[in-house]
């Protein structure tokens, strides 16, 4: 039987776009890693030098990377404080997921703390970023190939709505199977939050430790970047269940895009500000630092309040915290919020996320564009993601979605966009 996705419109520029992204994403990541440690640290210049293979390939990095993944798998398999059910699938069944991501973060912190106490040179991790990113990239390619092959024997009902066009490059990139699992181990759910997000804050911490070793103490800017991003990662893992309703879990297959994005792109490019600060220390006075804390707090408040309001409403529309909000009925029986945060713009959570992204870059000063890469990339990602979500909501809710767009005309920034 032809999978339903074979008629789905192609995204990301089709096979050509997918092929270009598979080259461009790793190339951009290596460019950022090299630029951050170079003197001029220019985002838009060609890389100062091309690393030789010996600088990229290291058996120690390979061992470390697989130990890391093994450790996170072990934490995932520990008894969870809660099991959650995912959205209803095509065959009307629902998958179950362990909610123990925050526990994995705490256990990792304890283990790393213990390691440091017995002399683990955490700062030395910063010297291994290049070979680690290299093995992680190779892993993502091999892993995506295995996922692609696994999908060949999966039943049609297990395939994702997209990612089954019949073009191998496009399908390899987008991912064919929606929820690839072995037994109850869910690969996509595992990768979405744990190994990448936790590695991101661990790399940040290693950069902070290394800065302390080099300059006597970490700079205020390094503290801020570490603190802000730890809050973001801790929050994501604390609210792990919320990821079950994102398009990554409910709509996208598991292929190169998410395997590379989750496992490689997040830890090695999202830590760019801390990488930049290690090699290019920036002065930051207390009043400015306080203003940045306020900016991050405002962004976080909007992001968290908007996400929680929607999650509470989706779980139980009669919950007293959301029962008074105005809604639009839809033909599916579900309602759309049209007041509160979701009555202000159609993606208030993205607005908060973008304000935080700015607060993460400003501690790096304004002399270089490089630390603003995350803000630029993230704006493009969210604008594209918003357009994809819009298409999916239009399909789901039809006229009711048109009415929502009429009542709430702005997408992310009130009166601007
Ligand atoms: N740092 C990073 O790299 C990234 C961060 N993020 C963050 O992750 C979080 C999740 O984002 P994302 O998965 O894109 O999507 P959202 O959490 O914004 O969810 C979108 C869904 O919400 C529901 N919805 C939309 N409008 C309404 C409404 N008015 N009332 C009720 N429900 C509504 C629809 O699903 P339904 O109706 O089916 O419930 C829609 O598909 C965000 O905070 C985002 O900022 C996301 C991507 C990358
Ligand atoms: C670079 C590629 C083209 C795209 C890669 C995309 C991924 C990096 C992101 C897709 C959705 C993500 C989400 C998060 C991190 C980034 C990825 C994996 C969060 C976990 C970030 C924290 C939030 O609280 C929840 C997010 C869910 C989606």
From TrEMBL:
Please state which protein family the record places this protein in. Answer: Belongs to the ERG4/ERG24 family.
Q: Which PROSITE patterns match?
A: STEROL_REDUCT_1, STEROL_REDUCT_2
Cellular component per GO? endoplasmic reticulum membrane; nuclear inner membrane
Q: What is its EC number?
A: 1.3.1.70
Instruction: Enumerate the transmembrane spans.
Output: 12-36, 56-78, 99-122, 128-149, 250-268, 288-306, 354-375
Say what the protein does: Catalyzes the reduction of the C14-unsaturated bond of lanosterol, as part of the metabolic pathway leading to cholesterol biosynthesis.
Q: Which UniProt keywords apply?
A: Cholesterol biosynthesis, Cholesterol metabolism, Endoplasmic reticulum, Lipid biosynthesis, Lipid metabolism, Membrane, Oxidoreductase, Steroid biosynthesis, Steroid metabolism, Sterol biosynthesis, Sterol metabolism, Transmembrane, Transmembrane helix
Q: What is the lineage of its organism?
A: Eukaryota, Metazoa, Chordata, Craniata, Vertebrata
Signal peptide stretch? none
Catalytic activity, as annotated: 4,4-dimethyl-5alpha-cholesta-8,24-dien-3beta-ol + NADP(+) = 4,4-dimethyl-5alpha-cholesta-8,14,24-trien-3beta-ol + NADPH + H(+); 4,4-dimethyl-8,14-cholestadien-3beta-ol + NADPH + H(+) = 4,4-dimethyl-5alpha-cholest-8-en-3beta-ol + NADP(+); 5alpha-cholest-8,14-dien-3beta-ol + NADPH + H(+) = 5alpha-cholest-8-en-3beta-ol + NADP(+)
Q: What is this protein called?
A: Delta(14)-sterol reductase TM7SF2
* InterPro entries the UniProt entry points to: ERG24_DHCR-like, Sterol_reductase_CS
Topology term for the membrane: Multi-pass membrane protein
- One of this protein's GO BP terms? cholesterol biosynthetic process
EC class: oxidoreductase
Origin species: Phyllostomus discolor (pale spear-nosed bat)
Output the Gene3D superfamilies linked to this UniProt entry: 1.20.120.1630
- Entry's localization field: Endomembrane system; Endoplasmic reticulum membrane; Microsome membrane
Q: Which GO terms describe its molecular function?
A: Delta14-sterol reductase activity
Write out the pathway annotation from the protein's UniProt entry: Steroid biosynthesis; cholesterol biosynthesis
């Amino acid at each position: 039987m032809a999978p339903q996705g074979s008629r789905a419109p192609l995204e990301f520029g089709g096979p050509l776009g997918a092929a270009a992204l598979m080259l461009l994403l790793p190339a951009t990541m290596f460019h950022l890693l090299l630029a951050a440690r170079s003197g001029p640290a220019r985002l838009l210049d060609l890389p100062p030098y091309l690393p030789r293979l010996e600088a990229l390939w290291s058996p120690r990095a390979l061992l470390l990377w697989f130990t890391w993944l093994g450790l996170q798998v072990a934490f995932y398999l520990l008894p969870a404080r809660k099991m959650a059910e995912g959205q209803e699938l095509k065959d009307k069944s629902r998958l179950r997921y362990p909610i123990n991501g925050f526990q994995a973060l705490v256990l990792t912190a304890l283990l790393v703390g213990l390691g440091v106490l017995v002399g683990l040179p955490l700062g030395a991790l910063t010297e291994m970023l290049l070979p680690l990113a290299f093995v992680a990239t190779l892993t993502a390619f091999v892993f995506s190939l295995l996922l692609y092959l696994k999908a060949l024997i999966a039943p049609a009902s297990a395939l994702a709505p997209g990612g089954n066009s019949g073009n191998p490059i496009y399908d390899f990139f987008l991912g064919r199977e929606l929820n690839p699992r072995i037994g109850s181990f869910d690969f996509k759910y595992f990768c979405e939050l744990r190994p990448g997000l936790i590695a991101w804050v661990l790399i940040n911490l290693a950069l902070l430790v290394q800065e302390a070793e080099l300059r006597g103490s970490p700079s205020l800017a390094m503290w801020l970047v570490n603190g802000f991003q730890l809050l973001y990662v801790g929050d994501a893992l604390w609210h792990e269940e919320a990821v079950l309703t994102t398009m990554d879990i409910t709509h996208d297959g598991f292929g190169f895009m998410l395997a590379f994005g989750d496992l490689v792109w997040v830890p090695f490019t999202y830590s760019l500000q801390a990488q930049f600060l290690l090699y290019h220390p920036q002065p930051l006075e207390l009043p400015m630092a306080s203003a940045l804390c306020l900016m991050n707090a405002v962004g976080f408040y909007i992001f968290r309040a908007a996400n929680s309001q929607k999650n509470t409403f989706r779980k139980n529309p009669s919950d007293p915290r959301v029962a008074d909000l105005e809604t639009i009925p839809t033909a599916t029986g579900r309602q759309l919020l049209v007041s509160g945060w979701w009555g202000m713009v159609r993606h208030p959570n993205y607005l908060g996320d973008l304000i935080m992204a700015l607060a993460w870059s400003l501690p790096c000063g304004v002399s270089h564009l490089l630390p603003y890469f995350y803000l630029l990339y993230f704006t493009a990602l969210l604008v594209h993601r918003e357009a994809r979500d819009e298409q999916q909501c239009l399909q789901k809710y039809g006229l009711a979605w048109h009415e929502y767009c009429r009542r709430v005309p702005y997408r992310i920034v009130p009166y601007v966009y």
